[in-house]
Specification:
The chain is an alpha+beta fold. The protein has two domains: about 210 residues, Serine Threonine Protein Phosphatase 5, Tetratricopeptide repeat, CATH 1.25.40; about 160 residues, 2-Layer Sandwich (Alpha-Beta Plaits), CATH 3.30.70. Helices cover about 75% and strands about 5% of the residues. It contains 15 helices and five strands. It has a five-stranded mixed β-sheet, sandwiched between helices. About 30% of the residues are buried.
């Protein structure tokens, strides 16, 4: 045990080249002892010696040699079956695994080391070692949980874990007298601290970038929301404007329709007024005013064109008897029947009008004597066909007529109508149911 300590101390004090030769000599010691049977104390000492060398090589960053001596320490401790030595080897293995980022492997080794310690009878040193192991296990579990939560541990988490392990390693090396290795570990810790500061700066920058991106996204979303709101307001305004326009168009159309209806109604009223003014209300024939105006116009036209025009005054025979015998209602029907017979018999352009109670004036433009007689004959036949309710079918319906014709520009309407009236009087005196042509010269002589 003392020999091993001297070798370890010598390896720490020599220069770099001498240190490598000393370590090579240490590598040869187990090879020379492979065929020698060692007791447990020697195996434990051999294991602790190799573990110390592994820590030294780890402090100066020679990981290949660390693994060589650590593997030899494991074999010696396993052969000795010493729980305390196995616990120290597993503990340092957990430190290396955590240092390399193998958190799951470090966790398993730390649990194995803690199990070895707890299998021994408790004492003060073991209790302190168990406390250190528990702290290491807690740190490993925290890192493992962070890896599970984050998917990938941030740089700051890994660096903090490595610094915590270095703290354990520095404390252990100081206790064991490995001041040079402790110094190397402290230098590594300072380097890690600088990395941690950079990592924290990167984390802060990343957080600021995330915050900026988040706020920028929120700003863009707010702008988009406002833009959508403005678009909705514009659409609503357009919709309202269109609705108002349609409403105004509908109101305008309604007003136009109302005005048109009013105009049509006024026109109809005007037509009815004109009809009442120029039409006989009972029979629908022209009244005295209209037929006289029509006769005067046709006479003026005849004076210009020289085309003849005839004027026929008709009077229903014994009309007073209809009213006395059958009543005024039947008398009214007789008058209507006579107008229908006339309208069905006269030509286009001819006109009939009522000039008295049962007296009627026919104006026949362009009609000569033969045409006049044909028209009156058609009227006679249609009027004689009795189809009036309230009158016996055999009861005679007849009328008498006086005819005058325009022959000279000197003829006036008054003279022509007086001539026709004289001819009518002659027809009635001659037995009724006949028509008589007036001779203007004779009329003039009678006057």
């Amino acid at each position: 045990m003392g020999c091993l300590s001297v070798v370890l101390a010598a390896g720490m004090d020599v220069n770099a080249e001498g240190g490598q030769q000393a370590q090579l000599r240490e590598l040869e010691i187990p090879e020379k002892l492979d065929n020698i049977i060692l007791d447990n104390q020697e195996l434990i000492a051999h294991a602790m010696h190799d573990l110390d060398l592994a820590k030294e090589w780890n402090a100066i960053g020679h990981l290949n040699k660390v693994r060589v001596f650590l593997e030899r320490a494991k074999r010696s401790a396993a052969t000795a079956r010493d729980p305390l030595t196995l616990a120290k080897v597993d503990w340092f293995t957990a430190v290396l695994d955590l240092q390399d980022g193998r958190v799951e492997a470090a966790h398993q080794k730390a649990i194995a080391a803690l199990g070895q310690i707890r299998s021994l009878p408790p004492n003060e040193n073991l209790m302190e070692m168990e406390s250190q192991f528990l702290q290491l296990l807690k740190k490993i579990e925290e890192n493992s949980q962070q890896l599970e939560d984050l998917g990938k541990a941030p740089d700051a988490v890994i660096i903090n874990a490595e610094m915590a392990l270095l703290d354990y390693q520095i404390a252990a090396l100081k206790e064991e007298g490995g001041f040079q290795a402790a110094l190397k570990a402290m230098e590594k810790k300072l380097s890690l601290l600088e990395q941690l500061n950079h990592a924290r700066d990167r984390d802060i920058l990343h957080q600021l970038q995330v915050q900026y991106a988040t706020r920028e996204k929120e700003h863009q979303n707010e702008l988009l929301r406002r833009k959508n709101l403005q678009q909705q307001l514009r659409n609503q305004e357009i919709k309202t404007r269109l609705h108002n326009q349609l409403l105004m168009i509908a109101l305008a159309i309604t007003l136009v329709v109302i005005v048109l209806l009013m105009l049509l109604r006024k026109r109809e009223q005007h037509k009815r007024v004109m009809k009442l003014a120029f039409t006989d209300e009972l029979t629908g024939a022209a009244n005295r005013r209209q037929i006289m105006e029509f006769a005067d116009n046709e006479l003026a036209e005849a004076r210009v064109s020289g085309i003849p025009v005839a004027f026929v005054i008709c009077d229903l025979d014994h009309f007073k008897k209809f009213n006395d015998c059958f009543g005024h209602d039947v008398g009214d029907e007789v008058l209507k029947h006579f107008v229908r017979a006339c309208k069905e018999s006269i030509r286009d352009g001819d006109q009939i009008g009522r000039i008295g109670g049962e007296e009627w004036l026919l104006v026949l433009p362009g009609a000569r004597k033969g045409q006049i007689e044909q028209i009156l004959e058609r009227i006679r036949k249609r009027f004689a066909s009795n189809s009036i309710p309230g009158i016996d079918a055999g009861y005679p319906l007849t009328f008498s007529a006086g005819i005058s014709q325009y022959d000279s520009p000197s003829d006036t309407l008054s003279a022509l109508l007086k001539s026709a009236d004289k001819a009518l009087y002659e027809a009635k005196n001659s037995g009724r149911n006949q028509y008589v042509h007036a001779d203007l010269e004779d009329v003039s002589a009678l006057i």
